[in-house]
Amino acid sequence: MDRFELMQMLKQHSEEKIVLLVLDGLGGLPLEGRTELEAARTPFMDDLASRSDTGLMIPVLPGITPGSGPGHLALFGYDPLQYLIGRGILSALGVKFPIREGDLAARVNFATLDAKGKVLDRRAGRIPDEINRAMCEKIREIHIPGIEIFIETEKEHRAALILRGDRFSDNLSETDPQKTGVPPLPVKPLDNRAESVHTAELLNQFLDEVRRKLKNEKPANGILLRGFALHQQIPLFKKIYGLNACAIAGYPMYRGLASLVGMDVIETKSGVEPEFEKLAELWGAYDFYFVHIKYTDSRGEDGDFKAKVKVIEEVDSHLPTILNLKPDVLAITADHSTPATYGAHSWHPVPLLINSKWARRSEVTHFGENELVRGSLGTLRSIDLMPLLLAHGGKLAKFGA
Amino acid sequence: MDRFELMQMLKQHSEEKIVLLVLDGLGGLPLEGRTELEAARTPFMDDLASRSDTGLMIPVLPGITPGSGPGHLALFGYDPLQYLIGRGILSALGVKFPIREGDLAARVNFATLDAKGKVLDRRAGRIPDEINRAMCEKIREIHIPGIEIFIETEKEHRAALILRGDRFSDNLSETDPQKTGVPPLPVKPLDNRAESVHTAELLNQFLDEVRRKLKNEKPANGILLRGFALHQQIPLFKKIYGLNACAIAGYPMYRGLASLVGMDVIETKSGVEPEFEKLAELWGAYDFYFVHIKYTDSRGEDGDFKAKVKVIEEVDSHLPTILNLKPDVLAITADHSTPATYGAHSWHPVPLLINSKWARRSEVTHFGENELVRGSLGTLRSIDLMPLLLAHGGKLAKFGA
Predict the structure, then answer these.
(1) Which of helix, strand or coil describes residue B340?
(2) Which residues contact A2 (CB under 8 A, 6 or more apart)?
C-alpha cells in the first residue's frame, strides 16, 4: 500500500480547521552565529513554539536543493521524485492557463535576432509586458491543422506556450543556444518514438511561422523555447485527503502549484497583511488553508540577511490575525531554505512548528533552527507533514484493528 | 526516479575538494559514563565540531550490524540492501585480484585433514604465509577445460579462489563443516537452475583435484570453501557523481571496496600519520579523497577501550595535517560502531561531522555521540552522506524549477 492509498483509506471528516503557513525559503544559515530566524525578534512565534511540537524537515532528500515545485509538492504530501512537474507546466500554471492532461507546455523567451537570424539578445532587452502581449497576439494568428496553440504573457521577455490536441512527447531538445552570435537551435527528438519525432516536426513548423510573423518586429523578432513538459494530472487533494482546501498566495507559481493539486485559489494581493486578512475573511469556508508568503525567499535570494530578518518580523507582528482565528491545527514551515549568506535555494532542513491541542510540546523557547531540532518531531521528510496535520486535526482514522 | 538517477541528473562540476575521513568502527558504548570518543581528549575535533554541522548516521537500518562491505558501500551512497557484495568478492578485492563481471569468487581456508579425510584443524594451525603461497602454487597446476582458475594468498590459512569463463551460479552450499571430526562437505546447488547444478559439479571436480595435489602435504592438505559470490559490476563513482575520487587506505579490503566503486587506489603505508601525509602529498589531484583509518575498529574488536581511545587521540593529534589543506568539505564519520565493551561490530548509529562554509553549525562543543545527536543533521542514514557532501561542495544543481 502506498502513502496515498493509506490516506484514502484512513481519511475521515472532522470540523477541525488546519492552517499551513509557508514562509518561502525560511530556513537559513548563521551570520555572526545566528540564522535569520534566530536573529529575528519573533515574540508571537516564540510563544507559539513553546506551546507546540517542533522539528526540522528535509524537503526532498538530504543534500538535495529543491526548486519551488518539488518543495511545495513535498509539503502537500506528493513524493517529489515521483511527481515531477516540468518547467513548462509551471510557466503555464503561473499565467493561470487551465492546463489539461496531454497538453505540451514550454517556456518562451522573446529574443532579438540579427539579419542573419543569429541571436543578438536572448532576452530582447527585457521588453515591457506591453510589447510581449502584442507579440503574443501576432503569434496567436498562426494556425497549424489539428492542434490548438496558446501563448500567454508572463512578464518582460517571458511567456508560456501550450500545444493541445495531438499525441505529444516532451523528450525534446531546447532551442535556446544559451549564448549569442549563433542562431536558435532546431527542436530535436531525444528518442526514436513516433510522437517525439512528430512533436519536434510540429514545433519546428511552428517556429518557422513565428519567424515569418515577427520578422519585421523589434526588438522581439524571435523566440526561444525551453522546458518542454507534458501535463499529466496528479491525484487531487480532495480525493487523497478528503480535504476542502484553499490557497492564499500572491504569486502566480504558488497559485499554480495549489491549483495543480486541486485547491481553490483565492484572489488576494501579495503581502503578509493582505494575505492574513484574506484568511480571516474566508475563515470557516474551508477545512484546509495554505497561506504562502514569498518575501522570505526573495530577500534570501537577494543575499540580504537583514531584510530577510525584517520579513520574518513582519510575519510575526501579524501572526495574531491568524492566532485569533484559533485554528485547530497551525503549522509554520517552509518549502526549502534560502540562506541569505548563500543567496540561493539550498538543501538545508527547514524549520517546522505544529501547534494543536494534541501536539506533544517541545522544550523550545524560540522559533529557530537550532532549538527546533530538539523537538519531538525530530527531523522528518516534508512528505510526512500532511499526515501529521490531518492526524492533529482528527482527520485520520486508526490504521488496522 | 531513484537516487542514482537523481545524482546523475543533478551532478555538476566545481573546484571544491571533499575529504571523507572514515575512522573504522568509531562509534562506541559508554564505560564509566563515556564512550571511547567522549572519553578521548580531542581538542582539534572538538573545535571542528563547534564549527560544523553534526548528527548520527544509521549504516543500514536501525538494529542492523553491518560488515565492512555494507558499511562502506552505504558511506559511498550505495544502498547496501540493493548492492550486496559477497564475501568471496571481498576476499578477491582484498588480494587486489582484478575481478571481472561474471567471475565466481570464494574464500579459501587451508585445513588439516586426517588419513580418512576428516577435518583435524579448520585453519591448518594458521600456517605461515609462505606455506600458503606454496600450496596455492600447487593448486594453480590444476586444469579444468573451459575455465580459468585463480587462487591468491591472503594471509595465514586464508586465500581467495576465483573461477572465470563459464556461466556460474553462486547459489551453492559451503564446504566448511564448521567443526572437526567430519569430512569437508561437497558443494551442493541450492536451486535447480542448470548453472547452479553445473557450477557445483565443476567445484566438486576442482576439490577432487585439490585433494590429489595436496594429499602428501602437511599441515595444509585440504581446503574449505565459503562465501561463494558472483561478481556484478556496480555503477561507478565517476558516472553517478561525476567525481574524480581516490582512496587512501592501508588495508586491502578497504582498498578493494574503493576500487569496486571506481576510486583510484593510492599506494600508502597503513597508519594515521602516513595516510594523512599521503593525502597532503596528493592534494589538488582529485575532487574527492576517501581516507580510511583501520585501528579504531581493531582496538574495538580487541575489547580494549583505552587503546581505542588512544587511536582516536592519535587521529586528533594529526588532524592539523588535514585542516591545513583547508578542504572545502571535511566529513569525519565511521562505517559502523565497534564498541570496545561489546568487542565486535554493532548496530549503533555512528558519529558524523560535516565541516564546510555552508554547514549550519550545531550547538556542539565536543565530538562525542551524545552531543552530536543535537546537531541539525539529526539522525540520517549513511546513504544520505554522499548527496550532503556533494551539496556542501557545490557539486549538485537545484532539483526542479
Answers:
(1) coil
(2) none
Rounded Cα distance between A52 and A47, Å, is 9
**pLDDT tens-digit map of B54-98:** 999 999 999 999 999 999 999 999 999 999 898 899 889 888 898
Residue A305 host element (H or E): helix A305-323
Q: Where are the alpha helices (DSSP H) in B114-242?
A: 129-139, 194-214, 237-241
* B401 contacts A63? CB cut-off 8 A: no
* Phi, psi angles (nearest 5°) of residue A106: -145, 160
Contacts of B2 in chain A (CB under 8 A): 81
B363 to chain A, any CB pair closer than 8 A? The answer is yes
For residues B218 and B131, give the distance between their C-alpha atoms in angstroms, rounded to a whole number: 10
Output the average pLDDT for chain B: 95
β-pair type (B378-381, B53-58): parallel
pLDDT in the model for residue A253: 85
DSSP 3-state percent helix, strand, coil across chain A (nearest 5): 35, 20, 45
CA B50 to each of CA A241, B364, B371, B391: distance values in angstroms, whole numbers, following the listed order: 43, 5, 10, 20
Residue ranges with strand state E in A118-221: 119-121, 148-155, 158-164
Predicted confidence at residue B95, as pLDDT, reads 87
Nearest residue, CB atoms, A369 vs list B1, B10, B360 = B360
Q: What is the pLDDT of residues B298-354, one digit of tens each?
A: 999 999 999 999 999 999 999 999 999 999 999 999 999 999 999 999 999 999 999
pLDDT of residue B116 exceeding 90 = yes
The ipTM assigned to this model is 0.88
Question: What gap in Å lies between CA A279 and CA A289, rounded to an integer?
Answer: 8
Q: Where does residue B198 rank: exposed (0-12), middle (13-18), buried (19+ CB within 10 A)?
A: middle
CB contact under 8 A, B399 and A68: no
Instruction: Please give the model's pTM, rounded to 2 decimal places.
Output: 0.89
